[in-house]
Each structure stands twice: as structure tokens, then as C-alpha cells.
Amino acid sequence: MTTITMILIAALLAMVGVVAWMATKLGKPAADNTPAYDPAAIGALKGQLDQIAQMASNLQTNVTSQLQNQERRLIETLREQAECTGQKLGDLLT
């Protein structure tokens, strides 16, 4: 994995932790008896979840792209090796 991918994974995990912490705070009534489910807190939580979803999508795209590039390079390398092997076999037979 590249450094960028690892940084994205770390940021994603950190954001999941923040959302989990925020979710635990939503269900507890405050000391001054205000409603436990504050619409602003729910909106903030939704915003965090949207960011996490976007980061996960970006991470998936990044990893998919990296895997496709690695696959292309591997196929090229295997073709080159097959050509070299074919040439060497041809040289041996002649």
C-alpha cells in the first residue's frame, strides 16, 4: 500500500472513532435536562457520516486504481518474460 492509502485509512478510522464517540453522547440527557437528542448534534453526526462515506469511496477508488495498475504491470512483465523465454527456446532449437 502506498503512503497515501495508509493515511486515508488512518483518517477514516479516526473519523469512525469520532462518530462513535458522538453517538454515545447523543443518547444521554444533559445535566440541565435539555433533550437528549439535539437536532444540531444529529446534524453534525450525519455530516461526519457523510464524510466517512466519501472517504471510504475515495479509498476504494484509490485502492482499485492501484490494483489495476499493478495488474497491468504484472501482465506486461509476464509477456516480456514469455517473449524472452520463447526466444531462448528458439535459439536452443536452432
Quick synopsis:
This protein is an all-alpha fold and 94 residues long. The protein has one domain. 84% of the residues lie in helices and 0% in strands.
Q: What can you see in these coordinates?
A:
The structure is a single chain. The relative contact order is 0.11. Helices cover 84% and strands 0% of the residues. The longest helix is centred in the C-terminal third of the chain and has 55 residues, at 39-93. The protein has one domain (3-93). The chain is mostly helical and 94 residues long.
Q: What features would you highlight for this structure?
A:
94 residues; mainly alpha; 84% helix
Number of domains: 1
H and E order = HH
State the distance separating the first and last CA atoms. 45 Å
| Residue share in helix | over 70%
Proportion in β-strands: under 5%
Structural classification: mainly alpha
Kindly state the number of beta strands: 0
State the low-pLDDT regions, or none.
none
Helical stretch tally: 2
Radius of gyration: 26 Å
- General form: rod-shaped
